[in-house]
Amino acid sequence: MIELEGVPELVDPVMVAAFEGWNDAADAASAAVAHLERTWKGEVFAALDAEDYYDFQVNRPHVWLDGGVRRVTWPTTRLSVVRIGEEHGRGRARDLVLVRGIEPSMRWRSFCNEILGFAHELGVEMVVVLGALLGDTPHTRPVPVTSVTADEDLARTLSLEESRYEGPTGIVGILQEACAHAGLPAVSLWAAVPHYVSQPPNPKASLALLHRLEDLLELSIPLGELPEDARAWQIGADQLAAEDSEVAEYVQALEQARDTAELPEASGEAIAREFERYLRRRDPGGDDEGPPHFRGPAG
After folding, report:
1. Residue 74: which residues within 8 A CB-CB, separation 6 or more?
2. pTM of the entire structure?
3. CA separation for the pair 270, 21 (Å, rounded)
4. Where is the composition biased (Basic and acidic residues) (predicted)?
5. Any domain includes 110
6. How confident is the model over 190-209, as pLDDT tens digits?
């Protein structure tokens, strides 16, 4: 039974979800949602019953001390609400329902139905699921982010790719399918993480997902220290490549393949998005400084 007595009426709500596990290479997607929670002080209003969905031998609970009292935190999925003011919503307020947790071990259909039950009760207009996968992409270039949907009309309206994937899937794919059956518009944003530097965290990939989310939902997300963390990650990856000649050669081969392929990041449309994002951040309340950085082929 879903009880939402403590949740106020929401304004044009969109649900944004990410799940640790198979769909979350380098924890990039779950870290992006965690950033939204911290930035906009998300208020948790619900948590799914851990015993219904998780194998505790796979995802073990954590024991910790709280003022000398021993407590247990169970693996679960939590829902929170963030309220976005007009200053970050391009002149209009709106709310996000954030879903962050762990890919369930069992009863995936019930899991998705429970999440969709919350979406229905809260009047959610669209679901955006963030994911990250390992790919043959060089760390020296912009992080590729693919935006896909199974909804033909939504693909046309928002200029998204229509999903043609066939093969094994994770909870992201199952949730998107459940949304389609429920008649709820759903989009998946996928960041490609270099497989040779796949250890978490990857703030550069998280940042790319947040930028794409900004464009999709017409938001201006305060980024805090994330850009600096992404630059530090880049330096660390550069050092790794410099210390290993085989890695350096492999990265160079990936760069050549990437640079000779079609580069949507260097298109006029992408550059226009970068400039619009920069203009949105020029107000005194913005957290970015300096001129816009147009992410072209050189990364």
Report:
1. 50, 54, 56, 61
2. 0.83
3. 30
4. 274-285
5. yes
6. 999 999 999 999 999 999 99
